[in-house]
Amino acid sequence: MTMTPDPKHWTTVQVLDRQSQERPDQLAIRFIDGPSYTFSELRQLSIQISSGLAAQGIAAQSKVASLLENCPELVGIWLGCHQLDAVFVGLNPALKGPFLAHSLTLSEAQVVICHQAHLAMLESMANELTCLHTVFVVDSSETTQLPNIKVLPFSHLYDTPIKTQHPQACFSDLAALIFTSGTTGPSKAVMMPHAHCYLYGQGCIDNLELTSDGRYYITLPLFHANGLFMQLYACLIAGAEAVIRRKFSASQWLHDVCHYQITHTNLLGVMAEFITSQPTSNLDRAHHLRVIAAAPASAERIDLFEQRFGIQMVELYGMSEVNIPLYTPLSAPRPGSCGKAYHRYFEVRIANPHTDLPCHTDEVGEIQVRPKIAGCFMSGYYRMPEATLQAWRNLWFHTGDAGFQDKDDYFYFVDRLSDCLRRRGENISSYEVESALLTHPDISECAVIGVTAGSIDNEQEVMAVIVSDIRLNFEEVLLYATEHIPAYALPRYFRQVSAEALPRTSTNKLRKVVLREQGVTEDTWDANHPL
């Protein structure tokens, strides 16, 4: 069935209602090593969970946070929230300490779904979490109490009598808060309306040719927009089957692709390198995979994949704020480019980041984006109006990324203008890593940067340049960092310098560009190869 372009129908509730009527017994989601759900079962699951949330006081635009890896409970919470017109807050389960406290307080989460292992952390910051009143634990059957916070087993949601009369979400209502990296401050919560979430999926249907006979292999985390909206939501909209693995596994990737007859999948950064590093086998060409969408993907990596596996890999460009405005046309790929503008819904240009005047062909400038349809873009950074105004000025959203456009209207990503780092597919706030390291009693100053790890995909590693009055033992610093920083954001490289050696501007601001140019120096300590 051809989807209507009318965004008034772009909500998860309407999608589930339609699919449960048109294909009730068709498999919608298959969890590897877990349960499967038809479209009608998925709709019923969302209604049941919404009833349980409503019984705990969750109503329209209430915030419900997930601290889960890929699992049925996360999917149920996402869809159950929307049955109530509530807001899903996707959080990385690896968050800890000030990272976790910031996300929960900023989002004003009233309910958190998590594992039992998170309870001690939540208890330690309970006084800061003034909005949080209920925690559901997926791997416990006990009811307990934290300071001012009720703790219930997740199964409690299944025991609540079903109530179907709930507010109907509008396409322009806030559907999700997805956290992105801060560059000069803490991480920001991107306000994502229903139509914005939907368009991620519709974009994959339009540009990657996903149809109802497709099977999407999802290994990226569902607390990010790529896994949840680009892949899973695309399947729900198209009537395709989503095959979900809890975590990416390079050794299992090809086996899964062949065994489940996968047609589509997405990769980020170094994931492709991990896959091509696996031994060749008779499965290399024994698959049904039609296309891989990657961000980023070097021309060399695309060539490696196509030569070995016979799979078309295409690059795209997007971010939580702007959706996916650039896709590589399947019929006219251009390795090295991140594609052409998805003109039906977006305008994209390259402009001077200081004057906002358009750049010439092949001239490097900032990638700037704006939507053509209401509701199909972020509505701002939650509770950060100044940051919203700074990013959205002169009628364009400023991505902070450098790129250029060639004479054939293909776009090319060059580098980041800001201090946002990207490692293993995760966006990392240098500010937050610096803040955590500065709590160490012997560290007086710190600058965190991204340095290239030497792969052909320009995968970054995190480097901390530190000032201290004493000679630091970096093994001890790493141990301290492990206790305060999520694993995905931990620095690999540490370097100690004097305060005078830190490059600064005339206004005493750090010039991180100089540190990035210096890169991994001879006096840098590598956690992967400690001396």
Unreliable stretches covering 5 or more consecutive residues: none
Number of domains: 3
The averaged pLDDT comes out at 92
CATH homologous superfamily grouping of the largest domain: ANL, N-terminal domain
Q: Specify Rg, calculated over alpha carbons.
A: 23 Å
Cα distance spanning the termini = 61 Å
Instruction: Report the CATH C-level class of the largest domain.
Output: Alpha Beta
Estimate what percentage of residues fall within beta strands: 25-35%
Largest sheet: 9 strands, mixed
In the CATH hierarchy, the third-tier topology of the largest domain is known as Rossmann fold
Shape: globular
Q: What would you call the structural class?
A: alpha/beta
Give a verbal description of the structure.
The protein has 531 residues and is α/β, with parallel strands linked by helices. The protein folds into three domains: 7-19 and 37-170, Rossmann fold (3-Layer(aba) Sandwich); 191-416, Rossmann fold (3-Layer(aba) Sandwich), CATH 3.40.50; 428-526, ANL, C-terminal domain (GMP Synthetase, Chain A, domain 3, 2-Layer Sandwich), CATH 3.30.300.30. 27% of the residues lie in helices and 26% in strands. Strands 2-1-12-11-13-14-15-16-17 form a nine-stranded mixed β-sheet. Strand 13 (264-268), helix 9 (271-276) and strand 14 (291-295) form a beta-alpha-beta unit. The model has no long low-confidence stretch (mean pLDDT 92).
